[in-house]
Amino acid sequence: MAKTINESCPALLVELVVETCLEREGIEVTDKLVSELTARANYHFAHNAKFRKEIKGKGNEGRDNLYKYITHWIKSKYWEKYSYLKEKVVHPDELL
Is residue 22 within 8 Å of 29, Cβ to Cβ? Predict the structure, then answer.
């Protein structure tokens, strides 16, 4: 089983989805924010079967679901509420 979204669904470039969602919400795109949101998506992909199933959806469903989740996280500004998650970047080797 693939450990990250990009490994499992190469057509879904998570970083580009994150950047697009940030721009749509009028939030400045920074490397730090893109990294945090990408790490969060990969964490959920590795640990949450429902999330993984939705991201691996047929056709454009996976992409649309990823947009939905990332937009939700951006609107909730999770990084302000859960600052301890900022440093939690899951490396694929940690998941073995």
Answer: yes
Q: What is the pLDDT of residue 96?
A: 38
Closest among 61, 57, 66, 60 to 17, alpha carbons compared: 66
Q: Is 20 left (phi over 0), alpha (psi -120 to 50) or beta?
A: alpha
Asked if residues 89 and 39 have their Cβ atoms less than 8 Å apart, the reply is: yes
The per-residue DSSP string of the chain comes to --SSHHHH-TT--HHHHHHHHHHHTT----HHHHHHHHHHHHHHHHH-HHHHHHHT-TTTHHHHHHHHHHHHHHHHTHHHH-GGGTT----GGGG-
pLDDT tens sequence across 42-92: 899 889 999 999 988 888 888 899 999 999 888 887 666 655 544 544 444
pLDDT at position 28: 87
